[in-house]
Amino acid sequence: VSLTATLGVLALLRRRPSSFIVGSIYFSILMCGISAVSALLAGSFLIAILFGVCTAMNLLYLHYVQRRIPLSSALLSAAIHVVAKYRGIVATLLGAVACGAVYVALFVLQALPWFTAEMSHAPNSQRGRARGRDEPLVGLGGSVAVLGLIMCFYWTQQVISNVVHVTTCGTTATFYFAGPLAMPPNPTMAS
Asked: Does the model's pTM come out above 0.70?
């Protein structure tokens, strides 16, 4: 399902890139505005002000970048053309998704003992307390270990995402600056 949706979005992006760029900015404006109004209705005035400022910043951003949208659309079209033409980029993406899935599974296997120890040492009414006292179930060492695991998780996911990003950018830049006739035999591996 997700592969079909991705191919559909790529086909639409190829036909109307400027609509997607402007639509995404309008969507950000809408979501920030809805969040500001929701926070205001909930009585969280500081949060409402923050989301109001975000809404205003997005409106200013749209105003100042509107004349650059045609260039962004042309670059987006070129990038989509390169992704459609050189399937190595898609293979890199699928490999990154597989690596990410394996890493998520390993992360869960490493963090699971900590979470099960946290939840199994106390009855439901005493959850968060050990034997009726106000001491944590897992000491400082366990908390630091979980914090380290979370930082490693974030770091690894960012590295995987950036590998795909740099590969796509390198292939697109080679296509854009060298031209389609001067492309190396395997531009994705060259990137």
From this structure: no
| Residues ≥6 apart with Cβ < 8 Å to 18 | 69, 70, 72, 73
Q: What is the residue type of 12?
A: L
Task: Supply the pLDDT for residue 125.
Answer: 46
Rounded CA-CA distance 180/175 in Å is 6
Burial class (CB in 10 A: 0-12, 13-18, 19+), 22: middle
3-state SS class at 154: helix
In whole angstroms, what is the distance from residue 95 CA to residue 3 CA? 14
CB 29 within 8 A of CB 58: yes
Smallest Cα–Cα separation from 94: which of 3, 188, 14, 26? Answer: 3
pLDDT value for 145: 76
Count of CA atoms in the C-beta half-sphere (13 A) of 39: 16
Alpha-helix residue ranges (DSSP H) falling in the chain: 2-15, 17-42, 45-65, 69-85, 88-120, 140-178, 187-190
User: What digits encode the pLDDT tens for the residues 34-48?
Assistant: 999 999 999 999 999
